[in-house]
Amino acid sequence: MELRHLRYFIALAGSLNFTRAAERVHVTQSTLSHQIRQLEEEIGQRLFDRVGKRVVITAAGEIFLDYATRALREIDQGLGQLKQSAASITGELRVGTTHTFNQSFIPECMATFLRHHPTVQLVIEELAADTIAARLEARELDLGVAYRPESNSTLRFEPLFNEELVLVVSDAHPLANRKRIRMIELHREPMVLLPASFSTRRLLNECFAASGAEPSVVAETNTIAAMLGMVARVPVAAIVAPSAITPNAALRVIPMENPAPMRTPGLLLNPAVPQNRAGRAFAGLLRKQAIGAGVVGATRYHRGHAEDAGHTPTNA
To answer: Which of 155-169, 171-185, 240-254 has the lowest mean pLDDT?
Structure first.
């Protein structure tokens, strides 16, 4: 049974006249008659009786008409929705993201999205993870890219990919030539870290506690750029995401282990707020981009960026 059979059947049931029904579906009368016979043979019952020049719908035809009409209506509505989705998307989309993902991940997604949907006004705000969660709950953002919120949050979190954090030191630092480093080896090591209000800092505190290490936190700053700037100038270390590090020949990136600090960024959505077409399209693009991101490994990252910077990595 094919869709044309249903369309021909409904057209004939509506007019009970082969000539008019054939005109309505733009086929010849003989074609319509042949298709109706095919349908009746497949169903195994007569749907119409031919009484002289009159056409009368049978009891079986009356029963089938209700179901065929509903089925065809659903299909037509689905096709209409697909056509609408393919049409130009307009409106405003408000996205909150943490600094790390606003370095390359979000800009790449923005560029791709705006190429396909140039009439959407895309508003990206770089915020702390806790602020993103609060503004989503207040309905001031449409979606967020951050980390899993606190357990009492009503927001929906959808993981995108895993990302290992890495140790960053200058090329003159005593640890610069290390291939890997254990967390316990950072005991009393001078470090610059994010403030305690950041979810990443809370994760690092848990990792330090698990390994038995207590680093010497000589400074705290809420921006990655300031942290890396300090690392390049004084003998301190920092722990950041590889995606937040721009190529710099003066910096060394060292993978960490026992434990390896791992973050899982994802989509944050308010389930009480239905997503508009722009939001669904951007979320779909983020998911697709995240597939390519996979697990960000420190060694792979450093090798690629060291080559970009024009030197051979000492810890790869």
So the answer is: 240-254
CB–CB of 145/157 below 8 Å? no
The Cα–Cα gap between 47 and 32 comes to: 14
In CATH, what number is assigned to the domain containing residue 95? 3.40.190.10
Q: Is 305 helix (H, G, I), strand (E, B) or coil?
A: helix
DSSP tally for the chain: helices H, then strands E: 10, 15
Q: Are residues 12 and 137 in the same domain?
A: no
Structural domain including 224 reads: 163-263
What is the domain-level CATH number for residue 187? 3.40.190.290
* Alpha helix ranges (H) inside the chain: 3-15, 18-25, 29-43, 59-86, 105-116, 129-137, 199-211, 224-233, 277-293, 298-309
For residues 64 and 58, the answer to whether their CB atoms sit within 8 Å is: no
The pTM of this model reads 0.60
The whole-angstrom separation of Cα 79 and Cα 84 is 9
In whole angstroms, give the CA distance from residue 157 to residue 165: 21
User: How far is Cα 210 from Cα 1, in angstroms, rounded to an integer?
Assistant: 64
Q: What is the dihedral of CA 87, 92, 93, 94, to 10 degrees?
A: 180
Are 254 and 269 part of one and the same domain?
A: no
The pLDDT tens digits for 214-266 are 999 999 998 888 999 999 999 999 999 887 888 888 999 999 999 999 888 89
